[in-house]
Each structure stands twice: as C-alpha cells, then as structure tokens.
Model the fold of this input.
Amino acid sequence: MRVTDGQLFHRISTATQKARMKLEGVSEPLMTGESISRPSQDPLKAQRIERARRAERRASQYDSNISRAQVYHQVVETSTMQVVDILGQMQTLSIMMANDGIDPGALKAAATEVDRLMDGLKSMANAKHDGRYIFAGRSQDKPAYDENNVFVGDAVGRTVQIGDGQTITADVPGLVLFGDPADGPTAFDVALAFKEALESGDNSAIQESISALKDAHERSTLALTQIGFVLKDL
Done:
C-alpha cells in the first residue's frame, strides 16, 4: 500500500497531538499543584476542590472580619476608659462640692473644671479612627454627636460574621456609652446640670448631681466591661 505524503503528515500530526495532550496531563498538576486542571477530568474531585476553595475563602474573610473587629474594639476600649475616667472625676468633684460651706470661688473653679471635662467628654464622643467616627454606628462618615451633644449617628450598628453561624456586633453606638435620652438624662445632660449648679451655687442641685453622675459613671463602666468581653472572645 502506497503511503502518500499527506497520509504520513496526518499520522505524524495525530501522534504529536496525542503526545502533547498526554504531556499536558502530566505537567499541569506539577505546574498548578492540583491533581486535576478541569472539571471534566474528574467531576467529583473537582467538586470537592471547589468546596475546599470556598471554605478557604470564607475562612480568610472571617479572619479579616475578626482582625478589623479587634482593632476597632481596642480603639473603642481606649476611648471608653477615658470617658469612665472623666465621669469619675466629675463624680468625685460633685461629692467634694456638696457642702453648704464651700467658698463661691471654689465653686467657680469647680465649674471651670467641669467645663474642661465636658470638652473632653465631647471629644471622646466624636473620636475617630482611620478616618471614621467610632461611636456613630453604621454612619461612621459623620460625627456621632452634633454641636448640641445630640446623637445623630446610627443606633443599631453593624453585625459581622466571624465563623460559620457566628456573628458579633461590630459597633458600639454612642448611646450605649453616653446614654439614650429616651431612657433618661445622658452623660452630657448630667454634666451640664452639674456645671450650672456649681455656677449658681445651688447646693441642692449639686447634691442631686452626685446620684446622676454616679449613674452615668456606672453606665460607662458597664459599656467598658462589655467591650472587654467582646475582645476576649475574638
């Protein structure tokens, strides 16, 4: 049988193509680190690999969420500690000033000190980290409190997933720390009332401030404790 040049070329081409396919089947796992490179090679195994990849991506996202939550709560913890300290100083001052025999000059000096502490309180309320207001909930692109110390942020906050079926509240809205006006006087209300009582020399009002400041201090301390529990679990 006579073999034409065309037939010979076809045989060589076919053999070359088969060899190339066989080589690719051997080399691709070495290059990619995977035993299969396309689903058609082993559909069941390809399905298992894809499930593993999805699980890996989820785990990576969880790690990222946890890391961001840790940084955020660490910043919030530091700010909250300062709020606790400020309210503690006011509470101590109220006890010291709750005396009919206090000199008017001392009351005036105390009022000036409370005014300074109130500035610190507002500064903490609108504290920022990485360009975002930490106590504004989901509205972190704007201050949590306006110029009248009214909360204008988001009271709900975000929830993020840190594991399969595991979520945490990722924000600490200012209402948690400084008080919700719907529930009673906020820390700002109490501080202002104390300052005005000192300025007017109203001993009865000063004595009332002791209890109000105690409540505000306890609320901020409770918030600090809750933040600590979140950090412990992360």
Observations:
- Strands lie at 128-129, 132-133, 159-163, 166-169.
- The radius of gyration is 33 Å.
